[in-house]
Structures are given as structure tokens and as C-alpha cells.
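Q: Here's a chain of 290 amino acids. Please give me its 3D structure as C-alpha cells.
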Amino acid sequence: MNAKTALPPLRKPPWLKVRLPGGEEDRRIARTLAELRLHSVCQEALCPNRGECFQAGTATFLILGDTCTRGCRYCHIRQGTPAPVDADEPERLVEAVRTLGLRYVVITSVTRDDLPDGGAGHFAHCIHLLRTRLPDCRIEVLIPDLQGSRAALERIIDAGPEVINHNIEVARSLFPALRPRGDYKRSLRLLAALHPHRDIVSKSGFMIGLGETRDAIVALLHDLATVRCQRVTIGQYQQPTRRHWPVARYYPPAEFAEIREIALGLGFRHVEAGPLVRSSYHAAIFSLDG
């Protein structure tokens, strides 16, 4: 499939229509993030659920800047040369969590291939500060592949988050076109390395609707189950702008339900699958359930 020769964009079905963000809680979180010079993936990636999540008083923090060193063709986050690491960011992150009264925090980042450890040390610093200052807060991290560095991954593991998530994002056959600087096997190896750490929940997620086959979806679920990934999120891809990879198909809710049953049959502890599901959607409920 070639994005340049694709047919005109598909019409968005009614089950993907969501209310636009708004309300006092939405404004309060946005104001706090702005005042503390923090980024949220909810806003940077144009997440369709950001209104609902903000209304519930939850947010996913985007650390290490807002510029990614890679250029995945489905992603709305800015690509280019990132600014130097902001050493004070972890302090401001803790202050935001305290101000917003969060009990469950999701921390993710852009991919920083320019850093020797891929940003692992910065992740660990954020986790350690939250542990020290707000010990009742539970922590989930959504990490990049760290270019396959086991030492970098161990720094994050040693910091002790409750959940480590690494999204595999798309079916294996689509990696060359959509994630040319990613590596399917490398991502699976990262997830496999989490299995011996029984006190940490392993999690992954991917999108459908980019041109994959049903067999490719099932094969991806088998691969995640084989590396003992415990939890998985499956959502519908939505094209951020006309210059991004086009939507090949919108899956109806009934097909998501079927895919969820396949995943549960493979032994995943928890599966979230639906048109509006994203990696951090309902993260606190999802993580604490079982």
C-alpha cells in the first residue's frame, strides 16, 4: 500500500465521533501543564479521548521534549532534532502530579535516539522522584525501544514502576513502510525481557486499520503472547492529517470484540479492544484490574 496513490480518505463512521474537549477540568489540566512547561501526549498526538480523560482528572505526561528523532508515518508528534534534555523536568512533573491530585500517572516520551541511553536515565529519575515525594502514586511508563539496549531497560526496571508498556504499534508486515527505524523483533525482545520481573506488569498495544490482514492481527497477538506480554490494548488508527498514512479500513465495534476474544483465548490477563482505545485510555482502571 502506498499512501501517495491511495484512494480519497474514508468517511469516519459514527462510532468514532467523540465530543470535543472542554470543561473546567480540561482547562485546569491544560493550564497546569502550560504553567509548568510540560507536555501531554493527549494533546501532542491528538488523542480522541483527551476530553474524557481530562474530565476524569487523568493525563499522560510526555517527557524528554516534544520532538521525536524518528518519523513513523502514522504519528502526529513532531519529528526532527530535539532540544537538550531538561534536567529540571522531573521536578516539574512531580509538582504537576501533586497539583492535579493524581494517584496514577502515565509517563511516556518521544523517541530519543540521540541519547546514549535513549532517555532511560531521565525516566528513572522521574520514577524515583515520584516514589520519594508521592509514595502513594502508582506509576506506568510507556517507553520507546531504547535501540535494544538491555542496560537502558534495566535502569527503568530498577526504578520500579508498576507497569512497563512498550507499544509494538502495527502488524509486522507494515513495519518497513510505517516504522522504518523500528524493529519488530527488537520490540518483542524488550517485552520478553520484562517477564522475569514478576512485580512489574508488562503491557503493549497496537493499532489496526492501516492495511493489515486479519491473519496479521492474529499473528501479532500470538507473538505478544509468546513473549509473555500480560496486557494489550488494540485501537482503531485514525489519520492525524492528510500527509500521514491513510486509513485503509474502519473496523466496527463487533470486530474489535471478536479480536478481544481471540486475545483472551491466547492467555492475556487483560485486553482492551475498541475503536477509541488508546494505550493510556483508562490506564488506572486497566492496570489495577486483576
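Q: Can you summarize the key feature?
A: The longest strand covers residues 201-208.
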